[in-house]
Amino acid sequence: MQLKFSPEEEAFREELRSIFAKVPEDLRKRNEEGKLNYPDDIITSARILNEHGVHVPNWPVEWGGKDWTPIQFHIYREEMNLAFVPEPLPFNAGMIGPVIAQFGSQEMKERFLPKTANLDIWWCQGFSEPEAGSDLASLKTRAVRDGDHYVINGQKTWTTLGQFADWIFLLARTNPDVKKQAGISMFLIPMDTPGIELRPIQLIDGSYEVNEVFFNDVKVPAENMVGEENSGWTQAKFLLGNERSGIARVGYTKTNLARAKRLAAQTKTAHGTLLDDPLFAARLAEVENELLALEVTQLRVAASSADGKPNPASSLLKLKGSQLQQAAKELLADIAGPDSLPVAEVAADAPNGSARVSAPEWAQLAAPEYLNYRKVSIYGGSSEVQRQIIDKAVLGL
Amino acid sequence: MDFELSEEQGMLRDTVREVLTKNYDVETLRKVTDTDLGWSEKVWNSLAEIGILGLTFPESEGGMDAGPVEFTSVMTELGRALAPEPYLDSVLVPGSLLGIADDATRAELRQGLASGELLMAFAHNEPGDRWPVAAVATTATADGVLNGTKTLVGHGDCAHKLIVSARVGDEIGLFLIDADAAGVSRTAYRTHDRRRGAEITFTDAKATRLGSGDASQVIADTEVGIQTALCAEALGIMERSLELTVEYLKSRKQFGVPLATFQALTHRAADMYVQLELARSLDLYAISALADGIADPTIASRAKLQTCRSARHIGQEAIQMHGGIGMTAEYPIAHYVSRLTAISHTLGDADAHVAKLAKDLGSYDMIKVG
């Protein structure tokens, strides 16, 4: 038993630190403060990482991936978070890239993978529908073959950052007469194809992060289908399995707790600072301790993972990881307290943090972020779905 | 990073598990814990025979030269079996404190402990103490005459010899005394988890000082070891509690179907699993620190805090999901939960450890492994 990084792993950590330092400091500062410029900051950062070969390390080596150990991936994610480098766009790096590399034709790989790695294409995800959330396989969007094309009709929702997307990867029903999982196919479609209409959905924090996407007689060339017809569920399961790895975001929560500590030490109360308040300090200490427990759990999972097979314990990481991300945002919002009420100037399109009042900018951003972070226990397989996976795959219930 | 037991360590664990599962089921456990002694000399002798009692002592002192990884895996097995044998109280703790004794005394006593023939206990806690406060109001004269009262001496009832902490001038010293020496009076008691202990009063009792110099550090280091051992024992108990609960959900039928068909129950079992694994992680964290020679009370508090939280969650949920049968002494889960509760109230509960960690918050920026 040895709970230590090897000298090689420490050297690897140093190497990554020097690469992450190449992402401009002002950009990383914006990320730390929750004020990234979309899509520019994401693209700038992605291209720097890609230039240094660390944007898509989870891909096959021939397409720019790295044959890192799970511990090296752990270090990579942690250092990225600690340096406030924006995480690679999940739709490109985590989702469609690996799917194309695994299931796409050689032609499709050559056409899409380099551009996907360099964020020359910004992808969005066309999976969820109004009637198909956790029960994704019940999706209704139809794709009907018409000569060398498919014609697509239907509606997708929760399409994150779709407003910046060049392409969408879409699940659609190609055979309505078989078991629901067996009649689904995956298509790659440019967002500017006639018949596609995008409607932004405003969220609880006032942000526009997700969208509805409508498909009206959208024509897609048959060669844009990934793999075989009706094999889409296999690809979707592969994609969703990858989605869970690294989703605990331990490094990110660490930075949030460190921030909470600094801000609490600056926040005056009747008897000193908020950090001196025993009740507040107890809450913070408790979350910190759970985070340490989760980090060691993540290392245990990494140290025991072989062949990149999804480990059912990754459901634990997602479940607890999202709870701790939320706990950290909750602490920050509670530190801001009454100063979290003002968020912006009066104009409806004024961004959060713009109110010209005494409440500092971080405090103006705190409550919207806290409200926004409810999402993390809903997306990527809700907490309830993760519990179900633990029951089936770990406990045999 | 390596969280696995070595082949040898795995064999040790399997051997202990075999001895204990052969000897204990809930009926035997009830019989054994209803005797005055409260544990089985037969099992004790088996543990001595396979070298478990002397596990952590050097070979020259009758031991096997093993370390924290080994003794904590024994604790986990004792927890899984709910074995009441006083390995921690009667052997590990006094064995560790003997580190300050002179060579001859240490070797002789450790050989006795390893053989299973000698039982010792650490008389440290006093009335009114509550972790982390240990007043040590018991006094010793320069020639070792003890006066004072020690309470909650785990397995002090059966000990042949006691190690007593006492104030001598400005120092805290450790003193060795026979449990039946003149001036020593013991009142034995039973705990809610069917273990044994004693309150012990010393009235002009003549003892021998162990080593010289202030013993506060060896006491503190030993306490880190005890916390880690208790966490390891609790881990075994929580593992079994979850296993029993899962088995019960699969086998028990109501409304014509197994309980496992109700998500209201199975999702709570998933949360028990999460709590178990978080506790295991900080347990491993504390064990590997100890194995690196670091007796860090902060690390021990971290492990104990998570253990207490997980223990309460898993224990209460386990009984609730068993329903009425979980309340009975005839079924194992109640015994597991009682033991978890006792561990959580030994050397600081969750609140006490949170309070300690909360006080230190300002001294570092970011929580880190290592």
TrEMBL record, chain A:
Keywords annotated in UniProt: FAD, Flavoprotein, Oxidoreductase
Top EC group: oxidoreductase
InterPro entries linked to this entry: Acyl-CoA_Oxase/DH_mid-dom (IPR006091), Acyl-CoA_Oxase/DH_mid-dom_sf (IPR046373), AcylCo_DH-like_C (IPR036250), AcylCo_DH/oxidase_C (IPR009075), AcylCoA_DH/ox_N (IPR013786), AcylCoA_DH/ox_N_sf (IPR037069), AcylCoA_DH/oxidase_NM_dom_sf (IPR009100), Mycobact_Acyl-CoA_DH (IPR052161)
Keyword DNA damage: no
EC number in record: 1.3.99.-
Family: Belongs to the acyl-CoA dehydrogenase family.
PANTHER family in UniProt: ACYL-COA DEHYDROGENASE, ACYL-COA DEHYDROGENASE FADE29
Annotated Acyl-CoA dehydrogenase/oxidase N-terminal domain residues: 6-118
Source lineage: Bacteria, Bacillati, Actinomycetota, Actinomycetes, Mycobacteriales
UniProt cross-references to Pfam families, sorted A to Z: Acyl-CoA_dh_1 (PF00441), Acyl-CoA_dh_M (PF02770), Acyl-CoA_dh_N (PF02771)
Acyl-CoA dehydrogenase/oxidase C-terminal domain boundaries: 230-394
Cofactors required: FAD
Protein name: Acyl-CoA dehydrogenase fadE12
Residues in Acyl-CoA oxidase/dehydrogenase middle domain copies: 124-218
GO MF entries: oxidoreductase activity
